[in-house]
Inverse folding.
């Protein structure tokens, strides 16, 4: 059997997420990029879970669900930081264009 | 036939991820990201991970999407585009692109060339499923075999919430004009019709976790979704203080989980070991308390307020 | 026979989806785009649901499909209404 298409997807998601994180300076887009990267990692773990001969390995599945919830919590914290940063910038007079 | 479907799915996913990181408009990037989340849900279903498919659509696409859009709306026009930052210069972007492509290729080689040596933990989990009090292997792993992970995860969610609330302490909740005017008759009707159904679905998903795909996280996220619907429809409002009941519900999952682990030490002789006779009710109680805490945490992360109050209407 | 009928319904539904998507991409302003995408997709989803319901083994499944279709139709109509309304307001403001 050749290359699994989902392996290509996992690698591509990681690469694109990495690129987005480096190349896009907007903080909201960095959060998007980290999440895309994370989805690539999740997909690799799910692919590895399929190696078990009798049905998919549920330990990586459970770990990915844990990871997903933590990713969303961390992203929500990041979004709160972005809001706070915007608020601080707004309260400093004349510094909107730095 | 399904191979063709997989190819189309992967192609679309990669294309959308490309759009998401390169498109100039932040709003478009967010919308594309939500679509990626939904397609990932399909991909998880194809990869025999239905639990994950549910979690992804409810948490990854649904709630994270709502959080992202809410933050985008809170930024003003200048911040939406530049946010005071400059785009990296073209040579740097090329360098980043080449580096990322190399990294992706290396990952692809690693993923395809590793020999399929299955992990021992998975087989161990499947073989000991009888002892776990649930036929659903993912729930068994989450709540029993690797319960430390789940307990600590609850701690992380709580920490994220506290951190987010601290960051936004200066932002007293002031509904904008367009927030409060739900003057179209359709929205209240929609909320009235859908909120109970979504709540019921969340409760069902938690219970379903004991024997089929579903569980505390998927159910909790669905309950949080019902809460988001109620907030957007003006039935719930954020308030700047935390009521006692809110605090109690926020820590309920962690407390019940820890208490179940600690109180049963004399009986079983180990932390988080459950007696085989009562394992099903114990699991159910833990699942529901986890789901309630997760739902409230996620909902407060959405409103960004310390508490909630019922609306007048 | 049932299979043939279900296939016909599913293909018809997919054609509606195709038409709706072409409309979404090609129509000039937001109102006609919304019109194309909600109307065609609701009809397409309905046909698709009928096709799949014909293939379903149990009545429970048929009921669930019908419920799903109803929820999707209600949600998409309200979403369409809200998008159009938001756009109208922004135009009013200038």
């Amino acid at each position: 059997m050749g290359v699994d298409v989902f392996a290509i997807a996992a690698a591509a998601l990681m690469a694109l997420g990495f690129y987005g994180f480096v190349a896009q300076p907007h903080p909201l887009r960095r959060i998007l990029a980290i999440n895309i990267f994370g989805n690539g990692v999740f997909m690799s773990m799910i692919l590895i879970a399929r190696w078990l001969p009798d049905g998919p390995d549920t330990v990586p599945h459970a770990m990915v669900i844990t990871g997903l919830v933590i990713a969303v919590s961390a992203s929500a914290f990041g979004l709160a930081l972005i809001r706070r940063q915007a608020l601080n910038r707004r309260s400093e007079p004349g510094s909107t264009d730095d | 036939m399904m191979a063709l479907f997989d190819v189309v799915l992967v192609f679309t996913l990669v294309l959308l991820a490309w759009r998401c990181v390169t498109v100039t408009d932040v709003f478009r990037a967010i919308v594309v990201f939500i679509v990626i989340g939904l397609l990932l849900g399909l991909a998880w279903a194809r990869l025999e991970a239905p639990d994950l498919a549910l979690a992804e659509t409810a948490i990854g696409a649904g709630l994270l999407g709502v959080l992202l859009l809410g933050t985008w709306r809170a930024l003003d026009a200048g911040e939406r585009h530049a946010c005071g930052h400059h785009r990296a210069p073209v040579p740097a972007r090329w360098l980043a692109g080449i580096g990322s492509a190399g990294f992706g290729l290396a990952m692809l080689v690693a993923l395809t060339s590793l020999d399929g040596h299955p992990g021992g933990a998975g087989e161990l989990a499947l073989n000991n499923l009888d002892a776990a009090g649930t036929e659903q292997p993912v729930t068994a792993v989450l709540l029993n075999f690797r319960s430390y992970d789940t307990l600590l995860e609850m701690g992380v969610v709580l920490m994220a919430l506290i951190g987010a609330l601290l960051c936004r302490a200066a932002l007293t909740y002031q509904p904008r004009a367009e927030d409060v005017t739900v003057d179209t008759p359709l929205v209240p009707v929609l909320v009235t019709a859908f909120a109970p159904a979504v709540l019921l679905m969340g409760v069902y998903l938690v219970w379903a976790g004991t024997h089929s795909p579903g569980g505390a996280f998927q159910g909790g996220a669905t309950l949080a979704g019902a809460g988001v619907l109620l907030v957007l429809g003006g039935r719930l409002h954020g308030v700047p203080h935390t009521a006692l009941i809110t605090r109690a519900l926020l820590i309920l999952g962690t407390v019940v989980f820890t208490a179940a682990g600690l109180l049963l030490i004399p009986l079983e002789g180990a932390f988080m070991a459950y007696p085989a006779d009562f394992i099903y009710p114990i699991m159910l109680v833990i699942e529901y308390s986890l789901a309630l805490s997760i739902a409230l945490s996620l909902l407060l992360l959405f409103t960004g307020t310390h508490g909630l109050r019922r609306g007048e209407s | 026979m049932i299979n043939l009928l279900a296939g016909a319904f599913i293909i018809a539904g997919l054609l509606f989806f195709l038409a709706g998507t072409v409309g979404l991409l090609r129509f000039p302003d937001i109102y006609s785009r919304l019109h194309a995408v909600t109307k065609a997709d609701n009809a397409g989803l309905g046909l698709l649901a009928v096709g799949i319901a014909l293939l379903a083994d149990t009545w429970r499944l048929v009921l669930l499909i019908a419920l799903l279709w109803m929820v999707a139709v209600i949600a998409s109509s309200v979403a369409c209404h809200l998008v159009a309304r938001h756009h109208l307001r922004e135009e009013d403001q200038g």
